[in-house]
């Protein structure tokens, strides 16, 4: 099994209140670069940060890596518009960082990125692929893409309290600035992405389309962002079978809405619960409290874990958490974080408290 | 274990008679791009050729991949000056294709490539690395580097009849054009590489230097090209333990000379024989006849094969040979190639007869 990980950025993540509150914008740009180093090497190697939420919830990359260390799968990272260097090897599809979706054009090269990604996908020798993503701000651009395609627009968030209303205002502005109305791009997903999307979307969609045309089985590994990509593929006329694999954290938040979205798009839905509620580990507690939820192919990777091996994945996640310099994971007060966000922000010795996923 | 594979090009490979006779220059430029696709995916995916010598001897990448499919090791490809696109993920160290060493400056950015490669090497989390190379023309640039450093200059070749005299003439011209005499760069290896080297050399040397400084064990996987890199490292003042791992094909050709070179440079030498003489397979026969010999970390990869597993590697090499569309490997006439080079060149249906390693 190969996991493809398109990693990119969009200036949309810098919009206040959408991005993880308190995270320095300059550091957030490192998040996808650091995520792919964690996936490739087991920890950030040249990136200056370990991505965590403001309250210290570690990036889903740590969990995807834990699965990789237990199950063993190939990884191919695709540069889908990184804005900071990474020491992970990346495939080039000509993508550059995405602009703020409130600019008239968000992804000028959406079509050429899609074409190159499609060629890459079609060339792969694998029988099955999982395609994930890491892009701060990605749920906002997903909302914009769904809106432009006139699909039910309802997205998840890496924050426990989803700032959905604010995202809707941003999307409204974005469509206005592009001279589009909601639903204006039905049947033309690349135009929608060009106007109000991000560069990871045409990369994932192109790889998926190419691979499906080559007879490769494709699973989109993610939550609502992958619903948006699946919608783009269906609007492009692609009828091949398609699956979405995500975490129970996304599925639970969406309360049946995710299944409905998948039904509408004729996608199979696979939901995996990593069983984090079985442990009193501070990071697992935070996931159970609704932080992070998904990203960096986490749900797809979890779907590869054989029956009976999930406890080993949790053990490995604890090991990686410690390796990332985040402590021993012991929580106090019945599962609450052992340090408050305020403590984190003010502690100059805190090894990994900056950055954030931003969506 | 991680295998790092810097892959690059130098226009030096285009000098007539040094490169594999008959190989079209435009195709040879694809060799390293295709090699890393074979290592990553098991066959060329987007590259238009499977690299073979004019007589049909397949690239060592096929053997390194066979070892990977049996033993399983991580691979990180580094773009050390590729001139054609590759679908393999690559690490960026800012390298561009090398110029003809008879130009006044062959690698203008040798120092910055070295610095970035060193940073990359120092950042890696591994306990041990194997560092290989794929660069057509690389033994000629190795000869030039050794000559500029006043080290005994005696290199191997991917051709059965080593055009060593011709290489020496090229190196003499190269030094002349750079205003240097043999031995002019003693103690200044980056100046030697800048003048008469190739971009793979500062990449390998930089990664090795950074890794050694970080306490990572380093094995240079290759033959005389790695002797040249080891010489560069020693001339840079690096005193850490260093190993070279190569194939019996290189060691046998060099008749004790390789061990002497390693002794002089205080390097351990590991030689592995893949036992190709145990089979009557056309590709293995060609290796036994002195073609290709080494490259794409072949010798280093072979050194990872546990006792008793080499027959499995040979089986896997046969599988890959067939997968590459090169036939079933059956030879006729007691081990001679089943098609002559002339047949290959004239057969429009031949799936894999172009390119070549060129050094």
* Assembly annotation: homodimer
Fourth CATH level, the homologous superfamily of chain A: Nicotinate-nucleotide-dimethylbenzimidazole phosphoribosyltransferase (CobT), large domain
Q: Radius of gyration of chain A, Cα only, in angstroms?
A: 18 Å
CATH topology of chain A: Rossmann fold
Structural class of chain A: alpha/beta
Pfam families (chains A, B): DBI_PRT
Protein name (chains A, B): UPF0284 protein D8Y22_07045
GO molecular function (chains A, B): nicotinate-nucleotide-dimethylbenzimidazole phosphoribosyltransferase activity
Region (Disordered) (chains A, B): 328-359
Any overview of this molecule?
- The structure is a homodimer.
- Chain A has about 350 residues and is of the alpha/beta class.
- Chain A has one domain: 3-Layer(aba) Sandwich (Rossmann fold), CATH 3.40.50.
- The first copy, chain A, has 15 helices and seven strands.
- Chain A has helices spanning about 25-30, 30-40, 60-70, 110-125, 140-150, 165-175, 190-195, 200-215, 225-235, 250-255, 255-265, 280-290, 300-305, 310-325, 340-345, and strands spanning about 1-5, 75-80, 90, 130, 215-220, 240-245, 265-270.
- Chain A has a seven-stranded parallel beta sheet with strand order 3-2-1-4-5-6-7, with helices on both faces.
- In chain A, helix 9 links the parallel strand 5 and strand 6.
- The first copy, chain A, is globular.
- Chain A starts with a strand and ends in a 13-residue tail after the last helix.
- In chain A, about 60% of the residues are buried.
- Residues about 335-355 of chain A have low confidence and may be disordered.
- At the A-B interface, strand 2, strand 3 and helix 4 of A face strand 2, strand 3 and helix 4 of B.
- Chains A, B: GO terms for molecular function: nicotinate-nucleotide-dimethylbenzimidazole phosphoribosyltransferase activity.
- Chains A, B: Belongs to the UPF0284 family.
- Chains A, B: This is UPF0284 protein D8Y22_07045.
- Chains A, B: It comes from Salinadaptatus halalkaliphilus.
- Chains A, B: InterPro entries: Nict_dMeBzImd_PRibTrfase (IPR003200), Nict_dMeBzImd_PRibTrfase_arc (IPR002805), Nict_dMeBzImd_PRibTrfase_sf (IPR036087).
